[in-house]
Amino acid sequence: MHTRLLALLSDALGPAQAANELRWMNRALDSRLSLNDMVARRVRGEPLQYILGTPSLQILLSLPAHYTSGTQPFGPLNLLVRPPVLIPRPETEHWVLRLADSFLPTATVPVSLLDLGTGSGCIPLLLCHLWPPGTVNAHGVDISPHALRLAQDNAELCGIPSRLGLTKNPQNTFTTSSANFLAKDFKDAALSAYPRFDIITSNPPYIPWKEFLELPPSVIDFEDPRALFGGPSGLEFYHAISRLISHKDILNPGAIVALEVGHDQASAVQALMHDTGCFLRTEIWLDPWGKQRTVIARM
Amino acid sequence: MSSPEDIARLRQLKESEPLGNAWITWEQTRKQMEETALLLDDPDPTMRSMAADEITSLSNTLSDIIQNTFPSLLVPQSTTKQLSALLELKSGVGGSESSLFLSDMLRMYQRLANNASWKSSVLAKNDTEGGGIKDAIVEFKGEGAYDALRWESGVHRVQRVPATESSGRTHTSTVAIVVLPLAEETESHDEELFSMDDIKLEVMRSRGAGGQHVNKTESAVRLTHIPTGITVSMQDERSQHQNRRRAFQVLTSRLMDLKITREMEERRSTRRNLVRGADRSEKIRTYNYAQDRVTDHRIGLTMKNLTSVLEGDGIQLFIDAVSKHHDESVMLDLLEDKET
């Protein structure tokens, strides 16, 4: 059964993953895509997520047909992905699911959440989906118009409204705005528009210059450098975040900050959070592959 | 609002309903018979013959109650009646021919599920080259699915000339089947089957930095239940979350199966000719194409017309026969218990 295609894929991905991906491609077959083309694109390094296209979703959301888009499962959600926005990673899925379990907001006082560099919107949307209705109002900022558009499409797909509707039923909400959180005036802009936050989440760009040059084609050819490159040291955005939360008026008492970090950055980022003097304790969460992936700071 | 105790009581009440109904039918029929018997001496000959006819019909009803209804009530209520089922198929001896037969069997069970209005979905499946299936796990959702399918556990043997065989020689191949009970994920259990501390969860090993550095698509997971050594691997879905959920579902089923088997053993230390569910290495059925027959070795039942079993509804007859045999041996054991 497709021995030649399987061999081609195996060279690129290894035998076990090749068998799985060929099966998923087979399931996604439709009149517009042939298995040959899918394998050829994958072997050239295109992300699997784009290849397993989603014509039905495109029609549902009345997106222009030329939009290359695909999907990526994220927890129980199936999110749209579209170049050049960063495709949600399984490491992120893992820590967000854990965060959802370790913290349960109540409807009496809905929490307000800020996601910095929201990309596809995966982090706030999964939390909005998992937490009970009426317990969280999330806000995502990003510098990329592609990301903001995608995050809004995903919110629509997940049924998370941008504001409370006329219905009496409690709802979680998700809004987006364009902002550069490295900018000096970001704090003032953020504060003027929103109340204080109970949770700040972020998967900021964290790849340092040296590693950026060695990224594989499926990343560097398709994903926005602005979602990946964390400055020469890779830590530039964590410095900006720590400056932001050092301001007295940005966090509510008892707030939580959850930051995804690169494979060798956890201690450095933990130290940054500690040095703000805002937090009672900080901890580091491992990802399923044993890497120190998330820094959690609690007031 | 109803409390859990209320629900248990209601269930008990509901379950004893057939018993009460049977007794009421029996009493009513007997009373009717007594009343009709008086009319046998009626002066009117027409009335007498009508009464005689009715007596015959009523006594038929009574003997049917004695022969069928009452015995069926003696068999203890199945505690697994409401459970759905997981069916695991693994190809055995016979290589690619075994895989081909496995896909035939899978279709047979899917047709059965369709007739019984169970919802079937394939949780995991490994295709082989040439249209066969190496192994598969299928979920059958619906009340009674487990009780109907549970006696399908065991080794199924096929004797036929494979489509791929040019010399026309008959091959013997086997497919091993294990049927597991499946509880709804939302259902609360009387006791937890496992503790999360006993579970080791592993993901596909991968080197490198992870995170933003790579666009990972590996989603395979493996669960190990340390106390029993049971492992479940799941890699069918793109979503690791989904694979994890399914792996936990299969693990729960395997542990529940262990529990049910253990309870069965404990309840009955003297088990004789009961159709055995425990020994899954036993050959239970042969599908012989040359002789156009299917034979169940446990109850010695042979049916001609193999196509009606594999492509029609014939499998239902085997399932009914084996299940009846099971009920009869339970009754036999009850009688023996009384005598000793």
From TrEMBL, chain A:
MF annotations from Gene Ontology: protein methyltransferase activity
Listed Pfam families: PrmA (PF06325)
InterPro entries, sorted: HemK-like, N5-glutamine_MTase, SAM-dependent_MTases_sf
SUPFAM superfamilies associated with the record: S-adenosyl-L-methionine-dependent methyltransferases (SSF53335)
Top-level division of the source organism's lineage: Eukaryota
GO biological process: methylation
Signal peptide: 1-18
Keywords associated with the record: Methyltransferase, S-adenosyl-L-methionine, Signal, Transferase
Gene Ontology terms: cellular component: mitochondrion
PANTHER family per record: HEMK METHYLTRANSFERASE, MTRF1L RELEASE FACTOR GLUTAMINE METHYLTRANSFERASE
NCBIfam families hit by this protein: hemK_fam
Protein name: Uncharacterized protein
Source organism of this protein record: Hebeloma cylindrosporum
Automatic annotation (TrEMBL), chain B:
One GO CC term, this protein: mitochondrion
Protein name: Prokaryotic-type class I peptide chain release factors domain-containing protein
A GO molecular-function annotation: translation release factor activity
Domain spans labelled Prokaryotic-type class I peptide chain release factors: 205-221
Similarity section: Belongs to the prokaryotic/mitochondrial release factor family.
Gene Ontology terms describing biological process: mitochondrial translation
Keywords: Methylation, Protein biosynthesis
PANTHER family (UniProt xref): LD18447P
Gene3D superfamilies for the chain: 3.30.160.20, 3.30.70.1660, 6.10.140.1950
Keyword Protein biosynthesis on entry: yes
Pfam families assigned: PCRF, RF-1
InterPro entries referenced in this protein's UniProt entry, alphabetically: PCRF (IPR005139), Pep_chain_release_fac_I (IPR000352), Pep_chain_release_fac_I_sf (IPR045853), Prokaryotic/Mito_RF (IPR050057)
